[in-house]
# Entry
Amino acid sequence: MTESDNHFVADHIQDLKPSGIRRFFDLASQMDNVISLGVGEPDFVTPWNVIEASYHSLEQGYTAYTANAGLFELREAVSNFLATEYHVSYRAEDQLLITVGASQAIDVAFRAILNPGEEVIVIEPSFVSYIPAIELAGGKPVVVEAEETFEFKVQKEQIEAAITPNTKAILLCSPNNPTGASLDEQDLRAIAGVVKEHDLVVVSDEIYADLLYDDVYTSFASIDGMIDRTILISGFSKSFAMTGWRLGYAAGPASIIKAMTKIHQYTIMCAPTMAQYGALEALKNGRVKVQEMKNSYRQRRNYVVKALNDMGLTCHLPGGAFYVFPSIKATGMTSEAFAEALLEDQRVAVVPGNVFGASGEGYIRCSYAASMKQLAEAMKRMREFMKKMNLVDES
Amino acid sequence: MEAKEIELLQLLESNGRLSDETIASMIELDKEEVTAMIERLENECSILGYSTLINWAKVLNEEVVTAMIEVKVTPTRGKGFDQVAERIYRFEEVKALYLMSGGYDLSLTIEGNTMMEISRFVSDKLSTLDSVVSTVTHFVLKKYKHDGVIFEDQQDTDKRMVVSP
# Structure
């Protein structure tokens, strides 16, 4: 057997496409002096009180498994948090599951609800894990393309057009990675109508909910009648700057959470205990810090959106998350060619939009989770790049 | 005070070198509005100055000695602590002065080039004031954090992968 001989690897895994981000990562990490706007995580370190609480739990010897669904105190804290912040009510006893990041919650959710061949509507451009997660669960992803004309908000009619007798679920992510698009209450109500009419379930990835800048956040689960049809997924990674802790959660109807917990108990047992104690502290005393980080992201968003539009990379003001998704169509280049040339020429890393689905072609994702100093330098270099291509005149 | 003014002050407090133009785009105002706002805040003395936090320990041949002094004083009739406080804060060596609750009355931070300089200030200037009852001087051995900034921060490097989903 040789290194490249993969006859032991299952066919459907061989067929699974590797993420396009990987290639770009390899390119960028070989170069020096790169300013990266390609990072999908906060630039803050986890708040100190959270780190300290986790230390303390280790010092006290809390190093054993927790309940499969997670520490009861943590589930209670999540339940309170969801009730106060998003007006959705979930019982700590049987409607919440603490997971290894929101990513695991997404994986388990699809495995829990999908029969082979059942369809899930996915709105692209989207986070890179959704389609593989659905495929690995035996489901069939059906892509709906959100359009820039509607600021990348999916339209109810588009969802309706994609529904077949096999449709089981819709996957929503708002605020969205990579576009920053955020669905308001009215948008969600329109989708809820379709969901009800066709008896669907919604997997709602609300990981960026705390990072919505100009409006009050509405959870899909808070729309009339939707709490019984929604698996609300969120976590601590983005708002509390805890990506490496790998801690998320799913909230939903008891029957679905029970099914998810069953998979979770056999495959993971429980989320890491020290991370759970850190998360408990984050919910108890970390809200002020989240507000501070959010303000800082909002200011940086405003700065970057203005700078990009000024240099001819047009983009709307995204409602949330920490990404802008400017169009590069004026350059006549593909997303990949643009991103590669920008990296080669100016040492600025952005992620080509097509990585997030075919409809992301013609765009790039720029993360503004970087210091103002880095952002200012990146904007300077990108402007230089656009000037070289004669796309911006310095007047 | 309106929200934008507070936002502007917080930005300047953390980085006094931000240009008006950058601030303007961060808080969604025009550059001219920001310039006018800063001028107004300066005139109202809400903004008192722009200083730079320097780690003098890193600068060759520049040694700065810092001490914190606890001072017990007798307040003056009709003026309370303000009169003696003014006598003290007018000295240029005094970098900060606070009226405290607890075991002593005034807390002052003083900077000098040598320990000698500081002890001379305490014995010649401070202790000889009529209202001053007693002083306790604490010399600073090392600065870890000042005005919210950690000196020699190990955490300051970006530990994230260069590209991630």
Summary: Chain B has five helices and six strands. Chain B has two domains: 3-43, 56-141. Residues 3-43 of chain B form one domain. The first strand of chain B starts at residue 65 and ends at 73.
